[in-house]
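cron nightly-structures :: item 1 of 1
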Amino acid sequence: MSRTEHPFRSGGVECAAWLYRPSRPGTAPGVVMAHGFGMTRACRLDALAERFAGAGMAVLLFDYRGFGDSAGEPRQVVDITGQRADWRAAVAHIRTTPGIDPARIALWGSSFSGGHVLAVAAADTRLAAVVAQVPFVDGPALLRGLGARRGKRRTPVSAAARHGLMLLRNAVRDEVRRRRGRPPVLVPVAGEIGSGAIIAGAGVEAAIRHLVPDDVAWRNEVAASIALRIPFDRPGRCAAAITCPLLIAVCEQDMVAPPAAAAVVAAAAPRGELRRYPFTHVGACIGAGFEALSTDQVSFLTRHLRP
């Protein structure tokens, strides 16, 4: 296979993207990929892109505007609407790339981008398949599950409340600054309870850093105001409108994205398939979890992207 830089424009900004081409001759199907919340293309997704390319698929793996190697200011701002626009621009880009069959394009997303691919697929009936791995599908379900998961970890209620208040205070400050055109208030993507992180819990940051290679300068920070928007985002509600085959992969030990909510999405999609695995949220991307999930996903995409 080969990998080249293959950037595209979204909202007037250049998004960095790698294009993987399989070694097989002829026109190839395509898979568009991007990472989850606050992560970049270099954070372990290249390993999965190589698996897909090795199975005969071309892969476009990109960074959102304002993240990683993509242009865009301000940096580290998770804009739900903007990121989904980046997905649509990436799909349009790969459909016009020579050597790739525009009728055989699939989406792959994980965690927060697992929600993005659901929303994008619901409005694009030309897509051939979608994979949503440990996906974020519903803001209210995420909040309900958060309380239950904190109980299981025996996080003191007072500590959790202080953390939530810290995050809310920073989110409001960031929103005010955003409306005034000022630089964002940044908080950690992941951290311990009390850090003010968006994703908080014992060992969460250490787990996520397993996805970051030693030579990658990943920034563990995002604009805080996204905490005001996540509770109202419900991409899973569009499941019934996704007409192409949809694979939902959930991990039973997932303490980040509630697996029960994702299972409901799989059942609601006309051509939904659900696969369950005994791993954690991050465990889906490393070690035995990566091997199990990637094997099933290669099989699913190969089956549905055939000419």
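cron nightly-structures :: done
The chain has two domains: 2-138+234-304, 142-226.
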